[in-house]
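Recall from the previous chapter that SMILES is a line notation for molecules. Here it describes flavin-adenine dinucleotide.
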Amino acid sequence: MSEVIDRSIDIGEFIPQPDDDMIICRCEEITKGEIRRAVHDGMWTMTEIRRYLRTGMGLCQGQTCSRLVKGIVARELAINPNELEPATARSPMRPTEMKVLGKEVS
Amino acid sequence: MSTNKADVIVVGGGIIGCATSYYLRKRGKSVIVLEASDNIGNGGSSRNGGGVRQSGRDPRELPLAMYGIKELWPELSKELGVDCEYHKDGNLRLGKNEKHKEILQGLTDRAVACGLDVRMIDADEIKEINPYLSDEVTCASWCPTDGHANPMVTTLAFYKKAREIGVRFFTGEKVTKLRKIKGKLREVYTEENVYEGDYVVVAAGYESREILGTVGVDVPMHQELCECLVTEAEPHMFDQMLGTAEADFYGHQSDHGSFVFGGMSGLELNNKDTGPKNSPSNASITSPCICRGIMKYFPALENAKIVRTWAGYLDICQDGVPVLGFVDEVPGLVVACAFSGHGFGIAPAVGEQLAKLIIDGVTSVDISGLRYGRFKAKI
Ligand SMILES: Cc1cc2nc3c(=O)[nH]c(=O)nc-3n(C[C@H](O)[C@H](O)[C@H](O)COP(=O)(O)OP(=O)(O)OC[C@H]3O[C@@H](n4cnc5c(N)ncnc54)[C@H](O)[C@@H]3O)c2cc1C
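With both inputs in hand, we obtain:
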């Protein structure tokens, strides 16, 4: 069951941190600072962060960074990471060439 | 419960609800947006192919499409403070034979009659615009002012900016009914709360039907699944939007390098949707079908790897164009639904014009062909 969330609740100012330049999503080269800023832009769910920044949308489809991203978002919102739903995994599970995927009929 | 009051209550946080709330707030109105999902823009708005097109549009919808492309899209990224990846690099609709040419010519003639800059071009000109297509492509219609943008980012950019200037958004807040007070629409009920506004905008996609039903308004529409796929990033090839005479696929290459293509299997109306309610899932036959469609026109992409596929619902109106604006029977109500698979490209124009309708009582773009009162029995 969804919980009603008021997206205007004050989560405080964005305060720059020394490691904001650290790359978190390696496939798409998204930094910690960009993820933290997106939270302050109103992106409060893993799905919104991913659609806004492309984190986890690259070749590995988030298998490497999703836990890290979740931790950063949760800390910024001052909530437990377990409260954040993961973004939906999408088929195909491995990158598949068009000529292969298109061959399900003969 | 004064905190639940605003000048305007918007039902649905898709691109239509987000854009409308932004333009209303920009002109000084207080606005509350109620979104059922946990995520803003989780409906069609984040799942579409990103086409910002005028060609192929119904004459009743065309004024909105043309207005948005001329007046709003070019400055949108700057206005919202987020790069929406908008490209105005044209739309090619491709054909390979005489039958295709006939279809394309018909579409072109109709668009020209509406004052749109579209023309038929031959193989040589096609090659000049896009050298990567199959040699079998012999004809195309060309609309140089069409284009595409990133739908996920554009939707969230409207949300971000609207929120920044004071629109209040509630997620996980599902609207269950509307209620008139003394003949005028005023109250919006959710599972646990009641909101009040002078106007209520219903922009909840297909679900608008059920919500509007609670005040006796029924928009004749149905739901249909449409799917997309995206490849890994490839070197930059072209910036146009593409489609074909027989609608085998449509799509573009994004700034990021990946190709985004959409299409249908043709069995959508009766296929079983195995996803949970409001979270559509892919049918196994559709993405292979889209791949075959692409390779017919784009053999160069046969080795491109698909990294993701997804599905989304279209809210298809009986007559294929949206229902927009006031409803005579329910003062205070503004309807914005039944976008029939083309609501993304016109969303900025819809949002701006609905804000104008609410504030000034009239729109500057002709939307008279889209009003609710148009549906009549055939005899
Ligand atoms: C695969 C696909 C490809 C497409 N390609 C294109 C394209 O190339 N070009 C183009 O112009 N258009 C395209 N479209 C259409 C376009 O995506 C839609 O017309 C547009 O996004 C409609 O926006 P919306 O805000 O009306 O709907 P939605 O984004 O569906 O938003 C409606 C919102 O209302 C919410 N809601 C539902 N019920 C309730 C309730 N009871 N209470 C509160 N909220 C509720 C939903 O959760 C949803 O967030 C495509 C669509 C799909 C699915």
